[in-house]
Amino acid sequence: xxxxxxxxxxxxxxxxxxxxxxxxxxxxxxxxxxxxxxxxxxxxxxxxxxxxxxxxxxxxxxxxxxxxxxxxxxxxxxxxxxxxxxxxxxxxxxxxxxxxxxxxxxxxxxxxxxxxxxxxxxxxxxxxxxxxxxxxxxxxxxxxxxxxxxxxxxxxxxxxxxxxxxxxxxxxxxxxxxxxxxxxxxxxxxxxxxxxxxxxxxxxxxxxxxxxxxxxxxxxxxxxxxxxxxxxxxxxxxxxxxxxxxxxxxxxxxxxxxxxxxxxxxxxxxxxxxxxxxxxxxxxxxxxxxxxxxxxxxxxxxxxxxxxxxxxxxx
Length: 315
Known about the structure:
five-stranded antiparallel sheet; globular
């Protein structure tokens, strides 16, 4: 039985008149790009109250990688974007690496105002000396315009140098939040469960499997339609850098089953492959908060670590 992972590459037009810098010769006119400075992975993609949120790895101080924080843009149609101020900033020697945003509709975290939903970010905190990566929380009660970091961060600390990129979503069948997070050097995706986003219990590990020629990054566990559109199945997407078949960074997928605790990869032909064979699509993640039954929508970074720092553009 042949099934396929459907990944949608989103295109984004800048808001008309947003900034004359969009007339620059090398400025993307269809894909979203910030007004200035360095950007890489998309983060915390979420749909909330008729608004699409794109957070992204961002250096507020220059056009080279560093001072990683979360930039922020919003859209009504996934094509035209309004860039907003930095959402979650590097602070106290902790850079803000890749992660998720969820809509906490029942206030399971206790972060929301009474009788309201709020947005909760789960992100990797990276110590600037490169010695440790941990999982941390921040929350917003004003539709992502301002964020407060949780007083008791980190919520997950394995005392490891490489432990990053949490992908979090609600699992209806088990009634809990599920996190997929990467152990990059071990080529594993580790699953955790939580009732409140603050306290996490390890569920299982997946991997090593498939291609392991580089670091495993940016996992995403997806509920997807089968090729005939009549069934739903699970897919686990995992970034790989380097080691992609086209060179540099790329993304593989595994089709299989998930029982709320363990992901089991299918052994059927075609159950493992690459999301695409272009060089410029890395660390794509899916939007949280979509209506029930909606097929997943993913957005990736249009670059490759082979040359990301060598682009002839400014600012």
